[in-house]
Amino acid sequence: MLSMAEFDFFTTEFRICKIRSCNHVFSEKALHRDAACRWPGQPSALPDGEYDMIVSNPPYIPSEDIKSLSDEVKNEPMLALDGGIDGLDIVRALIEKAPRSIKKGGYLLIEFGYDQGAQISSIMEEKLSQGEYSFYKIVKDYGGNDRALVARV
Q: CB neighbours of 76 closer than 8 A, spacing ≥ 6?
């Protein structure tokens, strides 16, 4: 059985999930652990060594770009959109914290902006050289843009 942390910035909480099946579709039972499950706003609050996998769609839009978004997107909570100056504040924090929170051999999966792949690769190359991760891959979306990080601790 896998233990997974899933971050959902739209509802500002995360869920701890027990994964019974690792096929392409997860069969999950979410365990809402009262206050321990509330998203405090920072990945540093994740407990050490507890998860097999962390999956996140964090805010990754640069602060300056938010004003040029469509009205429909602007209706989303700022917490779900604003990723800081370059859009990578939470992404960096997750990449930094995950090796301590994920069990050896576990995975970190993060969605990011279409133009952030080179920056994420640079961060991950440094982490690989420090031995914090054993593998990473940048995955492209259907449009051919860099879109997600898959990394193994």
A: 10
